[in-house]
Design goal:
Rossmann fold, about 325 residues, UDP-galactose 4-epimerase, domain 1
Length: about 325
């Protein structure tokens, strides 16, 4: 049986990915400090509660389970927070990631799938964004993820690592079976916030109405989290069949942009409720448009998104209901 070590396995995308690997017959070991993860989302294998900077703990789990690949999610991922408090992002997303990679290297695990982001591109020069687009982040979060990609490239050249960096374009939705979903505190993602606004009457804030876009609001490429999880599985299968070393990167997006106003309209139609929209100024570090070209992921990973924007809303609504019932 193949084994995947998933750091950040108690998180949003990490838990969906754990389910995808388990469904494909892999053994899954989640490694999470639970500083921002949720233990109740770990359902498809053991949880090792520890920090990725604890090299002894990493060495122990590698020795005990002999994983074939490490899927590295453990990171802080709030853009606004990264601009307000960059130090914790450099510590957690860079320093601790180096510590993790060193422990993996020393203990003989040299295949890594890295959770990256479209935030590494910054403000796009053209749309859709492909993998050769210049990477010039405009926020600290994106910069720390770019550093992570550069570290893996160096490890490939010098230590024979094989790695795949997957650059997400706005994860959304929840597990169609209702077994896992978003549990962020605070919640900053547009889809769950819009759903809460519709179902509970809370205000929904639009940050920026003067972008150079058709309706003035930011445009994003929303991709269902289960589709993202499947891409990690495909990337791992591909990596196991490749010769070392290698350092590759793929965009994960649908290629379809949805503005914040359009998102609000979709949620209103699906819920049958009107949303109380409050317009505010732009947030620091927010590009106007981020839309992916997913062609390379399709060609090399065989990946194709299956879920529509409406599916994202419906599965997220279902998860919101499940979460409320458990409170």
């Amino acid at each position: 049986m193949k084994t995947a070590l998933i750091t950040g396995g108690a998180g949003y995308i990490g838990s969906h990915t754990a389910k995808a690997f388990h469904a494909a017959g892999w053994q899954v070991v989640s490694f999470d400090s639970l500083v921002r993860g949720n233990e109740h989302l770990v359902k498809w294998g053991p949880l090792i509660r520890s920090d990725i900077s604890d090299q002894d703990a990493v060495a122990e789990v590698v020795a005990a389970y002999r994983p074939d690949v490490c899927v590295h999610f453990a990171a802080f991922a709030y853009v606004g927070e990264s601009m307000q408090d960059p130090a914790i992002y450099y510590l957690n997303n860079v320093s601790k990631t180096v510590s993790l990679f060193e422990s993996l290297r020393i203990n003989g695990l040299n295949r890594v799938i890295f959770s990256s982001t479209c935030a590494t591109y910054g403000r796009p020069n053209y749309i859709p964004i492909d993998e050769v687009h210049p990477q010039m982040p405009v926020n600290t979060y994106g910069y720390t993820k770019l550093i992570g990609e550069e570290i893996l490239s160096s490890y490939s050249r010098s230590y024979g690592f094989a790695s795949t960096s997957l650059r997400y374009f706005n994860a959304a939705g929840a597990d169609p079976d209702g077994q896992t979903g978003e549990c962020h505190d605070p919640e900053t993602h547009a889809v769950p916030l819009a759903i809460r606004a519709a179902l509970r009457g809370t205000p929904f804030y639009i940050f920026g109405t003067d972008f150079d876009t058709p309706d003035g609001t930011a445009v994003r490429d929303y991709t269902h989290v289960s589709d993202l999880a499947q891409a990690h599985l495909l990337a791992a299968e591909r990596l196991l069949g490749r010769d070392l070393p290698e350092a590759n990167a793929f965009n994960l997006g649908t290629g379809i942009g949805t503005s914040v106003r359009e998102l609000v309209e979709i949620v209103e139609r699906e819920t049958g409720r009107k949303i109380d929209v409050v317009e505010q100024g732009r947030r620091d570090g927010d590009p106007a448009i981020l839309v992916a070209s997913p062609l390379r992921a399709k060609a090399h990973l065989g990946w194709k998104p299956l879920y529509s924007t409406k599916d994202m809303i419906k599965t997220a609504m279902n998860w919101d209901l499940i979460s409320q019932l458990k409170i």
